[in-house]
Each structure stands twice: as structure tokens, then as C-alpha cells.
Design goal:
Elements (H helix, E strand, L loop, with lengths): L3 H33 L8 H32 L5 H24 L2 H20 L21
Length: 148
């Protein structure tokens, strides 16, 4: 297929840029949280700032990994392995859930962006689906009883 490489490369580049944006967003959130010096229900503000930094790094690394897998998928033009497929499926699920959350918190433009990224990831997964020739054909059932 002609379109699957550009879709995978586009999805990968968008996810890598999104990872950078996520890390920058968490940096700003940590700076704001550190400047306020307020606590939520007795939690230590320094602990919350540290947690924001860690979450930004982990989430940014996860999205960057997904982007790198998609770029690699587009460059190699081969179906991904089982582990890569599971990571990309979890990335699609994450974008679907975040899209549902972000529509209420940020607005429809952010929701549209999340759905475009979700569509790119799902399109990459569908276009690089493994061939069905790996499966063995099941024998026909005679008389309603499966052979032993």
C-alpha cells in the first residue's frame, strides 16, 4: 500500500512532538505548583512538585516510545511485532480516554487533536495488520460434532 508509510511516519512525528509538549506542560505545572506552596488535604507541596516532574518524564517517554515505534514502522514498512503492537494499542486507548477527558477540561479543539492522533495510530495499526496466512484453517465440523 502506498499510503501506509506516510501515515505511520506522520503519526510517529506527531507523537514525538506531542511528547515534547507533554514534558513542557508538566514543567510549567510543576513550576506553578512550586510557586503556590499550597497543599491539598495535607499533602506535601514538594512531594506534589516531584510527582509532577516524574509523571511528565514517564508520560513523555511513553509517548516518545510510541512515536519512535511508528517512525520505525514507517521506515521499515513491515508489520510490528507483538510487543510493539501492544504498546501502540495502549497508545491508541490512552489517546481515546484522554480525548474524552480533555473535551471537558480544555475544549473541542484539543478533543479534535486527540482524535486525529488516535485516528493516525489506529490507521497505522490497521494498515500494518499481520497477514492471515499465518493461521491454520480450521477443519469443517461434520454432523455438529467437532473432531477429537
Amino acid at each position: 500500500m502506498v499510503t501506509r508509510r506516510p501515515i505511520a511516519l506522520t503519526a510517529g512525528i506527531v507523537l514525538v512532538l506531542e511528547a515534547v509538549g507533554l514534558v513542557l506542560l508538566h514543567m510549567v505545572l510543576a513550576k506553578v505548583m512550586g510557586g503556590q506552596r499550597m497543599s491539598l488535604d495535607g499533602l506535601d507541596p514538594d512531594l506534589m512538585v516531584t510527582a509532577i516532574w516524574i509523571m511528565g518524564g514517564v508520560f513523555g517517554a511513553y509517548v516518545a516510545l510510541c512515536g519512535a515505534l511508528l517512525v520505525l514502522l514507517g521506515v521499515r514498512d513491515r508489520p510490528p511485532g507483538r510487543a510493539a503492537r501492544i504498546v501502540l494499542i495502549s497508545c491508541a486507548i490512552t489517546h481515546g480516554v484522554l480525548g474524552a477527558v480533555v473535551v471537558g477540561l480544555v475544549g473541542w479543539a484539543a478533543f479534535a487533536y486527540m482524535m486525529v492522533v488516535l485516528g493516525l495510530v489506529v490507521a497505522s495499526l490497521v494498515l500494518y495488520a499481520p497477514a492471515d496466512e499465518e493461521r491454520e484453517p480450521t477443519p469443517p465440523v461434520e454432523g455438529g460434532v467437532a473432531p477429537a
